[in-house]
Specification:
It is a single chain. This protein has 367 residues and is of the alpha/beta class. It is built from eleven helices and ten strands. The protein folds into two domains: 160 residues, 2-Layer Sandwich (Nucleotidyltransferase, domain 5); 174 residues, 2-Layer Sandwich (Nucleotidyltransferase, domain 5), CATH 3.30.420.40. Helix 3 links the parallel strand 4 and strand 5. The longest helix has 33 residues. It is globular. The protein binds 5'-O-[(R)-(carboxyoxy)(hydroxy)phosphoryl]adenosine and zinc ion. 5'-O-[(R)-(carboxyoxy)(hydroxy)phosphoryl]adenosine binds next to helix 5 and helix 6.
Length: 367
């Protein structure tokens, strides 16, 4: 049995978790267990600023992390002695938070004489579906969060190829900015979705960015501009105007997403013709959106893909995915890397081979 303590502090969640795996066989045969999963969200501390403030985030991590780690150990009925390794997010993300998490992990691992693993937060998202659904490689991942919008081909532990990314804003960021423009509270995504439920998705003909382009990349800043122009043209906005704009925005997003993702599904089929039931995994906070989820589900039905959406608690930022990535790396024999020398990286692409896309990842804060 391997038991790993995971620590996540890359953005505005302070999280710790203990995950266990019996033996070292493939997870599709022996199911892993999440023994504890403690997540403290800082949303309330950032809400007044309409977004995550890095200094506030770092300070909040410092204050909360020790208690969160203690709670994760206590919830799992595991003592530090029984932990086999410590896995901490080392990037990408806000560097202040990363320093807090990685330094704490180094201190605990050093004092307790345990191995330390420096984990890429995106790898945590990429491997979650193996923890929750026992998925086998290869599969396709759509990561849609506040900081990232990517399609990644996941073919093994450490074997990732980014097939698409956003050339400007992340999708969650587009939801948050739209909400802000319309005077809806932070975080924007859930509030835009709520308003959209009462709106007319056909009232505004917003653009479907990148639709039809052969490369499945994303772009959302033009859509954001179109929303601003539409709102300015009819200001002051009534509640119904806001609802109609939100519904029309969401319809444009779902439509653009379906077009972009379908390109990647086609490519996957060409590259992996032997896969009988290929899978599309969705991760990130935007995966909470019902309309987006339904659109992707329908797309998968039409194209013969299995749609895998891990429980939302494990789709958004958490430390169970970091502990799990640690277990996967140990099983794959990656433990030789000396994480005690590892310096946190605010930018750390999962696929180092893919060329950076101009304009993408400007914010680099959330993953
Ligand atoms: O994965 P996540 O919890 O945090 C990181 O970005 O790391 O994602 C948060 C993002 C925010 O931009 C939020 O507005 C968006 O996910 N989001 C949603 C919904 N719930 C959260 N976007 C659209 N619809 C939702 N229901
Ligand atoms: Zn994330």
């Amino acid at each position: 049995m391997i038991r790993v303590l995971g620590i996540e502090t890359s953005c505005d969640e302070t999280a710790a978790s203990v995950v266990a795996l019996e033996g070292t066989s493939a997870p599709e045969i022996l199911s892993p267990k999440i023994l504890s999963n403690v997540v403290l969200s800082q949303i309330a501390e950032h809400a007044a600023f309409g977004g995550v403030v890095p200094e506030i985030a770092a300070r909040a991590h410092v204050e909360a992390l020790d208690g969160i780690i203690e709670a994760a150990l206590a919830d799992s009925n595991t003592s530090l002695d029984e932990i086999d390794a410590i896995a901490a997010t080392a990037g990408p993300g806000l560097v202040g938070g990363l320093i807090v998490g990685l330094m704490t992990a180094k201190a605990i691992a050093g004092a307790a004489g345990k191995p330390l693993l420096a984990i890429n937060h995106l790898e945590g998202h990429a491997l979650t579906a193996r923890l929750t659904d026992g998925l086998s490689f290869p599969y396709l991942l759509l990561l849609v969060s506040g900081g990232h919008t990517q399609i990644v081909r996941v073919a093994g532990v450490g074997d990732y190829q980014r097939w698409a990314t956003t050339i400007d804003d992340a999708l969650g960021e587009a939801f948050d900015k739209t909400a802000k423009m319309l005077g809806l509270p932070y975080p924007g995504g859930p509030n835009v979705e709520k308003a959209a439920a009462k709106g007319d998705p056909a009232r505004f003909a917003f653009p479907r960015p990148m639709k039809g382009s052969a490369q499945p990349d994303f772009s959302f800043s033009g859509l954001k501009t179109a929303v601003r122009q539409a709102a300015q043209a009819i200001a002051p906005l009534t509640e119904q105007d806001v609802a109609d704009i939100c519904a029309s925005f969401q319809a444009a997003v779902a439509d653009a997403l379906a077009d972009r993702v379908s390109r990647a599904l086609m490519r996957f089929k060409v590259e992996f013709p032997q896969e009988e039931q290929p899978a599309l995994v969705v991760a990130g906070g935007v995966a909470a959106n019902r309309m987006i989820k339904t659109t992707l589900e329908e797309l998968c039905d039409e194209t013969g893909f299995r749609f895998v959406a891990p429980p939302l608690k494990l789709c958004t930022d958490n430390a169970a995915m970091i502990a799990w990535a640690g277990i996967e790396r140990l099983n794959a024999g990656f433990e030789e890397e000396n994480a005690f020398d590892f310096v946190p990286r605010s930018r750390w692409p999962l696929d180092v081979v893919s060329a950076p896309v101009i304009g993408s990842g400007r914010r680099g804060a959330k993953a």
